[in-house]
Amino acid sequence: MQISKHVFRALALGMVSMGLVMGAAFPGFVMGFGIPKSTALTPTFITATLIAGLVVGGLNFALASRIVRPRLKQLTARMQQVRTAMQQATFSGDWSACNPSVCRLDEHDEDELGAVAQSYNSLLYALHEAHMVEGQIREFTKTLSSKLDLHELGDQALTMLQANARAQGGAIVLERQGEWTVLASRGLSHPEQILQSQAFIANQGQAVQNRITLPPGVTVDAILSRFVPADVLLTPIKNHGLVLGWVILASASPFAEDVPRLLPLLMQGLGLALNNALLHDDLQRVAALDPLTGIYNRRFGFKRLEEELNRADRNHTPLAVLMLDLDHFKRVNDTYGHLSGDKVLIRFANLCRESLREGDVLLRYGGEEFVVVLPGAGLQDARDVAERIRFAIGQSKINIGDQALQVTSSIGIAATSGQKPITAEDLVAQADMRLYMAKATGRNKVVAEGSPDSKIDITSQSARN
Prior knowledge:
alpha+beta; Beta-Lactamase; five-stranded mixed sheet; 54% helix; rod-shaped
């Protein structure tokens, strides 16, 4: 007999066939119990046994169908519901119709159908968890992909990573130009100590995730504040196989088992976003710096000056500008060549940088002219800085071939009065005027006040060199 592909049709055929077989065999069976052959083999008795077997087979099928079919139909309907919900959610993004609380089967029997229902529920929960993880990764990557500022990216990434891992403390450590720096940190009292941590140093060469589970009462290099860590995860941030940095997360209780599996997936998006931010930061830095001296160029330096002027105006604080120029620099170029002149400019820029305070801004204005922006400095403070720079330059010797070249500088100073706003151009123009007054009246000096003597032509070529 050909078995139907429809399970219930096959079940019906099987049960009816079994009933007919039993009905046909029943006359022979009863003869063994003493029923006369003349009675057992009569057409009427045989017909009765066949009908009885057919009825029993039909009743068995009906009973099985009544018990099993509704449960299978429910399972089929829920699977169809999940399939439809997944198809719609793929395009709409709304996965609420595929939530396990909506689509799960309430099946508590311990038979085979109960096992099928439990397997279905497990599959549904696994699908939901996979979707949740996919959503976390997508949201994490989408959020970070719009961040190009390096520090903003680090803060945002660490916030989201701590939330996903339910960690109380964490940091992102970044490698730049061969040195490790802490890009972002939360919940740490001394995040810079991570760089000297034996666990971090030991893990650098492995470039794989490492988990440190600590016994109660043990701290990690005393760098964590407000809680005692019980679990620490160190996960590398990679892009195209290159380690860009590390994420360190610490929790007061053991991490959930899915956290170590989730973090490497999130690192893929972070690695790409971090690489883009690093490239953007490098481009910004290159665009802002003078290629010879490595200090701010004129365009970017003026932006910084305008920012500092606006801040000084809002806060009613002083600000001063120095205009510096090397004396007789044209003679250096003409005598020793432009390569030697470049060497002098680089040395000049380094001496200026070493003489400045933290927060001061140094920029190359053009040629051998430099500008220094001194936020918070009054006229006397600016004069002290200018004299320190002038003295350092005058005492420095630059070796060019077998000769030790010594140069001097002239410096003009302008400061905000605090009475009325002034533009960056006007402030630099005042400093420029006093610079050429210094050059016209002997060079190697600082001029902080006054205007050029009317008898001195500061526009002449001799006054400018």
